[in-house]
Amino acid sequence: MKILIAASEPKKPFDEFVKYALIRNHHEVYAAFSGSRGCLDEAVGTGRLKDAPWRVDLSAPDDKGNRAEAELALIRERIKATAGVKPFDVVLMQSLCEDTSKIAAAYAGSDAHFLYTLFEKDFSPVQPLNMYAKICLSKARFIVVSQDEIGQRLIKQAGSAYANKVVRWSLGLSGLEEIDSLRKQASKTECRRLFSEDVSHMLISVGYGATPEQQQLPVIKALHRIPPEIGGKLTVIFEAPCYDDAQREYVKELEGALEGAVFEYHIADAPLSRENKAALRCAADLFIHSCEQGGITDYLQEYLYTESCAVMVGKWGNYGELESIGAEFYYYPDQRAVTAAVCEVFKNRSHAYNSNKSRIRRFSSWDAVSPIWESLMRL
Q1: What is the pLDDT of residue 118?
Q2: Do 108 and 212 belong to one domain?
Q3: Measured distance CA(275)–CA(184) in Å, rounded
Q4: Domain contains 39
Q5: What does the pLDDT average to over 236-265?
Q6: Could you tell me if 111 and 182 lie in one domain?
Q7: Angle between helix 298-305 and 274-283 (nearest 10)
Q8: What is the span of the domain harbouring residue 57?
Q9: Domain with 161 in it: what CATH number?
Q10: Lower CB density within 10 Å: C or N end of the chain?
């Protein structure tokens, strides 16, 4: 299919969607950017994604003085100069800002299949909706959201008339491929050397962000209560990348709470590379998902996917979808229960979770979700 993306400074993981759901499936993909190329800059630079300039000079409106229609016609002609005369099969919107909506609206009179994607990191409410956004939402066959909450926010903003177009579908997890690639090169012990001074230690990973919502502080209190004969054989990693002063202050709190610990610990306060993220997943024996909101995350699924890592989640979260696919993980009722739960995992640390890899792959890999995106574009 021939696809046009109307984009405005797209953020990760939109680049993964373009790479795995569009380019890898051999579609002919063009992008018209209303702002910077954002996360798609590399794809354009390597030629996998074709840049389609669209800005036009409207210093001389047409004879009828219909400036809006004249501009849309000129935009179509400008894009045609790059993309050729063959019509687009799909117009995919990544934003509702005026310029991005204008690019897509230029094709509202065509037979192209319109999709509007709403991924968490790309979504920011636009008040009120501009005239071009209204045209595009009316034209869209589906409004694809990665979370129910995002769809609800859009409906609240744009109106209930669009509710029947909202479809929830997630992106695939490229981290699974990173893990597979790493395992061909390094063993669990070799991965463990990146994070622990003693590779015989049980390695525990706690959380994945530098915010109080991760609830790492209550987990630290629970870890302090572990008997020293076990605590001395643990290495605990806190993945807490800092991007602002508030997060740096939070890391200082973690450091203070960790004073006097009998277990080895490290705070990863700089963002891990993709390779090191995969290595941490492969090295870990236990992942404690203590986030206040709970729920299924990329990180959680990546730890499950390794099959060599126990995963503990708070009972307050919603993990029904993981239960439905038969993934093996453990619930704990509250933070105080972490102490006993960690000791239990330590005693049974050789246990393998042999079914998790295949179940997570069928649930969240790009191979699993791409056909759904393909069907949405063809319906």
Answers
A1: 83
A2: no
A3: 13
A4: yes
A5: 96
A6: no
A7: 50
A8: 2-171
A9: 3.40.50.2000
A10: C
Residues 136 and 274 occupy one common structural domain:
no
Number of domains in the chain: 2
To the nearest 10°, the Cα dihedral for 65, 68, 73, 78? 110
pLDDT at 60: 56
The last residue of a domain, from among 138, 171, 204 = 171
- 189 with 167, same domain? no
| Whether 207 contacts 288, CB under 8 Å | yes
What is the average pLDDT score of the chain?
91
Q: The dihedral of CA 31, 34, 38, 42: what is its sign?
A: positive
Question: Do 307 and 352 meet the contact criterion of CB atoms below 8 Å apart?
Answer: yes
Whether 286 and 192 map to the same domain: the answer is yes
Whether 62 shows a pLDDT value over 60: the answer reads: no
Say yes or no: 290 and 252 in one domain: yes
Can you tell me the mean pLDDT for 278-296?
92
Span of 47-61, 162-176, 300-314, 359-373 with lowest mean pLDDT: 47-61
Among residues 151, 171, 191, the one where a domain terminates is 171
Cβ atoms 313, 319 nearer than 8 A: yes
Q: Is residue 370 part of a domain?
A: no
pLDDT 10s digits, 237-247: 999 999 999 99
Residue length of the chain: 379
Same domain flag for 161 and 273: no
Task: Please give the Cα distance from 173 to 327 (Å, whole number).
Answer: 16
Assigned token pair, 98: 């005026």
Kindly state whether residue 283 falls inside one of the protein's structural domains.
Answer: yes
Residue 302 lies in a domain: yes
What is the spatial distance between Cα 50 and Cα 40, in angstroms, rounded to a whole number? 10
Residues 200, 339, single domain; the answer is yes
**How many CB atoms lie under 10 A from the CB of residue 313?**
23
